[in-house]
Amino acid sequence: MSNKITKSELAEIKEKNNGSRSYTNGEVTVYWRSHLCIHSANCLIGLPKVFNNSTRPWINTQGASSADIMRVVNTCPSRALTYIKNCGNALSRAEKAASGKSPETKIQILNNGPALIRGNYVITDADGKKIKVENEVAAICRCGSSKKKPFCDGTHHKIGFTD
Ligand code: SF4
Ligand code: FES
Fold first, then answer.
1. Is the bond preceding residue 57 a cis peptide, omega within 30 degrees?
2. What is the position in ligand 2's atom list of the atom closest to the CA of 143?
3. 158/18: higher pLDDT
4. CA distances (Å), 49 to each of 3, 19, 28, 63, 65, in order?
5. How far is ligand 2, taken at its centre, from the CA of residue 103, in Å?
6. Does the C-beta of 156 come closer than 6 Å to ligand 2?
């Protein structure tokens, strides 16, 4: 799985003032969207010298090589963490790739956590409100305790939800 940032994700970060952050070592820039974090801890376990939520800032891009940072960012299941390489035409390549439509929509059930849906689709919530998603990932609550239903807000982790 690649967590290279897509055009629509970049646009979301630029357009919405939703607390997204970016961290760079000059070679690679890591984007953090806290509202998408489902607390799987893959980042904290995979590269604790870079991802450490007991320090501020919690992402230290000097703590490992760019290759290792990208490898671990790729393990973030919800795309709360994404990255872009800052060399050459990496940005335009990512934007071109992002402009193509996903060929299919994929659903992945995480153990003891949400269901992830990737691709282009429309979610209709319980009140009939439609939410269009394009080339993005959405984490849908399975534990029943999220305060942001239908989306996961990480509560499954706090309550110790198990399948
Ligand atoms: S969802 Fe991503 S950012 Fe959140 S803890 Fe897991 S790997 Fe880290
Ligand atoms: S599955 Fe994450 S809050 Fe319910």
1. yes
2. 4
3. 158
4. 20, 23, 16, 5, 11
5. 27
6. yes
